[in-house]
């Protein structure tokens, strides 16, 4: 913890000692609390509300980049954070938003906690209420709000008329909360769709999920924009081509790596336009070059951990933690392999609520070896020896080691210096990625 994050961190830790961890899907508690705070959710700038299993954060990052590149001021709420709680709250400003200052966040958290009067509530609900307070108090042109879990009963789902509701790719995750079939999960995500408000449906792997979203939007009389039907994006001659009924945009390839980001960028362009913001060609091109989303196919170029790796190694981190996310990460790494062939080594840590073997199956035939490590920042971390067995069950060579540092040093000491350096993927959990960014000395800014 740095001095610039101490006050808010201390306030949130006090709340975590008083209130249950995790989620308790209901809107009753947060609605009661927001009423005591004067219903700040009703005094927000136009809201772009984003749900989905994978791609929510990337879509939020693209929306922010598009709006800021066109000169708009926008707030951004995302979760979870990687290193500091402050990452969840980006306050818009001229020239680009900044993570909330510590004193401002601490004051908002204390105010919300006081209004709650010690009643039963989750910390996520308190932080969501703090977000609404912060975003309603600071003028902006737009607010981008990412759903925490699900949609229908998520604490963010109290905005009566969002400027646009966006649902990104849906796959199996959080089955204990949301259901064990994609159509059940889609029904929960569709809960953010409000009567008559524009809806953007991102690229969907499962027809059943897309059908639920489209049926819900049509039933509620919403202007509807569906990927592959009303808009799409594809790579051509090293450029990103976006197309909708308004025509084509010929853009720089997104700074975020992986072909899946093309569809994420397209959904964001559609969302910003559906929300009523005109985005011209120059602004969209600038946005693709500037977009930033830490912990998702992020290349580490320097830092304390980087120095431990074999000389010349590429180090990538990605917090994707379910089979669907593993598939897009594997595809992104395959693209990197096409550009520059290097042997792939994985350093993985995961939590027990995820399908670990399903995640690892995406890398069968790609990864030479997997080092499995504990996830120290979560009580639900899978022991590294058990995780190695899950990787082996997926057909991978795997062994448990004590830490990311240990894995990097084992690689460095055992790597043949006459061969190509390795390409290293560190991932399987946002908790692990946050730990890596903290230990590397490169937290999100």
The helix/strand class is: alpha/beta
CATH architecture of the largest domain: 3-Layer(aba) Sandwich
The outline comes out as globular
CATH topology of the largest domain: UDP-N-acetylmuramoyl-L-alanine:D-glutamate ligase
Report the sheet-strand fraction: 15-25%
Overview of the molecule:
With about 450 residues, this protein is α/β, with parallel strands linked by helices. The protein folds into two domains: about 5-290, 3-Layer(aba) Sandwich (UDP-N-acetylmuramoyl-L-alanine:D-glutamate ligase); about 300-440, Mur ligase, C-terminal domain (Protein-Tyrosine Phosphatase, Chain A, Alpha-Beta Complex), CATH 3.90.190. About 40% of the residues lie in helices and about 15% in strands. The protein contains 15 helices and 17 strands. The strands form three sheets. An eight-stranded mixed beta sheet has the order 4-3-2-5-1-6-7-8, with helices on both faces. Strand 10 (about 240-245) and strand 11 form a beta hairpin. Helix 3 (about 55-70) packs across helix 9 (about 260-275), helix 4 (about 100-115) crosses helix 5 (about 125-135) and helix 7 (about 180-190) packs parallel to helix 8 (about 205-220). The mean pLDDT is about 95.
């Amino acid at each position: 913890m740095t001095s610039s994050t101490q006050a808010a961190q201390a306030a949130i830790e006090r709340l975590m000692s008083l209130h249950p961890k995790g989620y308790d899907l209901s809107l009753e508690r947060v609605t009661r609390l927001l009423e005591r705070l004067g219903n700040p959710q009703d005094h927000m700038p136009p809201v772009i509300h984003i749900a989905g299993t994978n791609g929510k954060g990337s879509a939020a990052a693209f929306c922010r980049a598009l709006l800021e590149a066109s000169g708009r001021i926008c707030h951004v709420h995302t979760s979870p954070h990687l290193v500091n709680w402050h990452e969840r709250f980006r306050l818009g400003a001229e020239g680009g938003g900044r993570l909330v200052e510590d004193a401002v966040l601490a004051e908002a958290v204390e105010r919300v906690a006081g209004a709650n009067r010690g009643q039963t509530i989750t910390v996520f609900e308190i932080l969501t209420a703090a977000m609404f307070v912060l975003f309603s108090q600071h003028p902006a042109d737009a607010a981008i709000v990412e759903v925490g879990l699900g949609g229908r009963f998520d604490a963010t789902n109290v905005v009566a008329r969002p400027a646009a509701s966006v649902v990104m790719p849906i796959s199996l995750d959080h089955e204990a909360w949301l259901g064990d079939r994609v159509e059940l999960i889609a029904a929960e995500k569709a809960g953010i769709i409000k009567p008559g408000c524009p809806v953007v449906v991102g690229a969907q792997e499962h027809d059943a999920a897309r059908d639920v979203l489209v049926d819900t939007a049509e039933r509620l009389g919403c202007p509807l924009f569906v990927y592959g039907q009303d808009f799409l994006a594809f790579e051509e001659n090293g450029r990103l081509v976006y197309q909708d009924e308004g025509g084509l945009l010929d853009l720089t390839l997104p700074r975020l790596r992986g072909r899946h980001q093309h569809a994420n960028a397209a959904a964001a362009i559609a969302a910003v336009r559906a929300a009523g913001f005109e985005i011209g060609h120059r602004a969209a091109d600038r946005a693709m070059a500037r977009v930033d989303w830490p912990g998702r196919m992020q290349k580490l170029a320097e830092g304390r951990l980087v120095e431990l790796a074999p000389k010349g190694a590429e180090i990538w981190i990605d917090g994707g933690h379910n089979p669907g996310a593993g598939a897009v990460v594997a595809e992104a790494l395959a693209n990197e392999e096409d550009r520059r062939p290097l042997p792939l080594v994985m350093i993985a840590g995961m939590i027990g609520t995820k399908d670990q073997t399903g995640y690892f199956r995406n890398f069968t035939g790609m990864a030479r070896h997997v080092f499995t490590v504990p996830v120290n920042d979560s009580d639900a971390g899978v022991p590294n020896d058990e995780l190695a067995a899950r990787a082996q069950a997926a057909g991978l060579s795997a062994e448990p080691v004590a830490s990311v540092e240990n894995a990097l040093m084992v690689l460095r000491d055992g790597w043949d210096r006459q061969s190509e350096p390795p390409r290293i993927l560190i991932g399987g959990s946002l908790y692990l990625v946050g730990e890596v960014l903290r230990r590397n000395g490169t937290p999100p800014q």
